[in-house]
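User: Run a structure prediction on this.
Assistant: Running it now.
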Amino acid sequence: MDNTTLYIIGLIISSTFFILFGIIKATIQDVDALLYVFTNGGRDNPSSSISPTLYKRGVFQISLMKQFSVILSFSFGFILVTSYTNYWWVWKLLLLGLIVLTLIIFQLIIYLLIHFVASKIIRPSWLLVKSIVWIFGWLFLLIDRLPDTMKNRISYYNSQLTLAIESDQEEWKDAESLLVEEEVKDANPEEQKMIRGVLELEDIAVKEIMIPRVDIIAAEYSISLEDLVTTMIKEGHSRIPIYKDTIDNIVGIIHARDVLQVLTGDVKNDDALRDLIRPHLVIPESKPAAETLNELKEKMISIAIVVDEYGGTEGLITVEDIMEEIVGEIEDEFHQSAAAIIKIAENELIAEGKASLEDINDKLNTELIGDGFNTVGGLVSSSLGKIARAGDVAFVDNLTIRVISTVGRRINRVNILKTESLEE
């Protein structure tokens, strides 16, 4: 095989890679495909969402490979035209220009057509990207050793890419909102509320709507059958979490109907009670409510235990709690009614400790924001920096919050007085 053939093969291969990398880059930078990758992997596989860091690395390395392919193509073409043809130098320049023009035309065609097929080829394209990131990861070790001026230039391009991604996502959210408004405008108010509730579940974490740890009614693993029945009757709960030693170690859930079967059966001992413990679902506090609802339905479980970053029990959430975000308040055993807020004057309230800051803001026209909490009780505890007692007073912005009563460590009821700020 002579050198001419080798250079022709090299030109074909490098040009092919240039086109391939151009397709991949155009695909993963397409707005629709970008949302497909970033939101939840195409909505059929939420676990396949892509991290922004991996995305930016992929785009950067694809860009490098694409430029490298262009350089190779031009080099092979230049050598072929200048060294292995007997044309006059003007014709050589024209032939070289034709090669470059062909590559440019291919690139334009790619960007014009890719939008129509991006969502269909995003998966195979992204698999190639991840492979390239893995193979050429050593490039980042080299980049770390580059002079600061060059690294700053690369960082600039990456920052521009990040801004473009964020802009595309904001545009998508705006478009989605307009689409929702168009779809629900003919529905009655109740239907509109339900539709919006379903859509908003994606943005609600279970921590925002769970039953807090201090309100969980649970039983120790060694509890007797008689005591468990007494607890269920007293608290009015048909499902009781069971724990060993501490509530941070919940081992399952016992249902009243299972206990009833034991009571009506021949064997009525505590050992039979242990066999009634059903498996439970454990979820992180940051898990979206929509995903939690789907998982509860799939596993046919009605209760999930919410844990914090250290694995400690943070709260409890039921199917009813999540459904309330869609259809409104549901009277169930764990959540009897909304936290009471009584307006006793224009700028004064009596509220339960579990009342949400959002409800207080609505009543008093304030802008309270929780830092890791979303209730009045959490706000007071955070402000005081200690376990609240009846009579304690917290000052937050232009609000004076006095603790009226507590139950154990939990704030039960508070008085909130809004005073006019100095600016007003």
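Residues 89-135 form the longest helix (47 residues).
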